[in-house]
């Protein structure tokens, strides 16, 4: 389906899908999550975006991590989880968007990247990151991170 839209059992349009990288640096008590600011509202978010046609969702997440946060690494092939949020359209309306979240083990943080001038990038503990994000489902995913779950990708 175009733009990540998929059709449900009844034939109606379901929420649109995006992919997000959950970038992780370190492990155990030293585990940090990389967040970026959104371009318009400057809220703290995960690097995320629309899944391109013919693109695997985990590869889309890795691409977004590079473009939005200047991160190089590996995304797991299976999502860690998902959350939904109301994506604001240009006309002011909103559409429910489902975001598939992929654990992304950061290998390198680049000094320059495509959206560097448009976003800020910072590292946070999972608990601090959960307190900063606006989406309750994403906050729950971040709180669920524990040292035993943070194995290398």
Spell out the key features of this protein.
153 residues; alpha+beta; Nucleoside Triphosphate Pyrophosphohydrolase; 8-stranded mixed sheet; 8 strands; 35% strand; disordered N terminus; disordered C terminus
CATH architecture: Alpha-Beta Complex
End-to-end Cα distance, whole Å, is: 29 Å
Count of β-strands: 8
- List low-confidence stretches: 1-12, 148-153
Radius of gyration over C-alpha positions, nearest whole angstrom: 15 Å
Number of helices: 3
Report the β-strand fraction as a percent range.
35-45%
H/E order of the elements?
A: EEEEHEEEEHH
Global outline: globular
The CATH topology annotation reads as Nucleoside Triphosphate Pyrophosphohydrolase
CATH class: Alpha Beta
Average pLDDT reading: 87
- Percent range of helical residues: 10-25%
Largest sheet: 8 strands, mixed
CATH superfamily: Nucleoside Triphosphate Pyrophosphohydrolase
